[in-house]
Structure formats: C-alpha cells, structure tokens
Amino acid sequence: MITIALYITIAMVVLATVLNVYRLIKGPDAPDRVLALDTLYINAIALIVLLGITLGTRLYLESALLIAVMGFVGTVAMAKYLKRGSVID
C-alpha cells in the first residue's frame, strides 16, 4: 500500500516539476522565473526525499539538504540582483 502511494506521489511531483519548467521558460517577467526556479528546487528536494524513502537509504536525505541550502542561496542572490542590479555591495 505504501509503495503505491509513493509511486503516485512521485508521479505528481514529476508533473509539478514539468509545469515549473514550463513557467520557467514561458514566464512573463523575471520575478516569475525566479519564483519558478525556487519551486523547482523544492520539487527536486521532494523527488530526492521520495527516492530515498523508496530505496530505504539515508544517503539521499543528505543530498536533499545540500540542494536546499544551495537553492536558498541562489534564490536570495537572484532576488537581490533583481532588486538592486548587483549581488555584492
């Protein structure tokens, strides 16, 4: 029963990832693209965690934490660039 739920959840997260990639490509302006990239990081983390649960290993959880930190730093840098025009002051 839990494996069926995992496969359904993986399929739904993959669908959300595809829709995020569409928004990233077709976004009307830069803030929409930054938001799509941020949610793409979140979907990648969800996929890695679900893969770790499916395979029964904790190694994937550490890589999900690394992607979370890098995604946060990237999103903050992009938002700061869009607001001020430079990342480093």
UniProtKB/TrEMBL annotation:
InterPro entries: MrpF/PhaF-like. GO terms for molecular function: sodium:proton antiporter activity. GO terms for cellular component: plasma membrane. Keywords: Antiport, Cell membrane, Ion transport, Membrane, Transmembrane, Transmembrane helix, Transport. It is a multi-pass membrane protein. It is found in: Cell membrane. It holds the Pfam family MrpF_PhaF. The chain crosses the membrane at residues 6-22, 34-53, 59-82. Belongs to the CPA3 antiporters (TC 2.A.63) subunit F family. This is Cation:proton antiporter. The lineage of its organism: Bacteria, Pseudomonadati, Pseudomonadota, Gammaproteobacteria, Pseudomonadales.
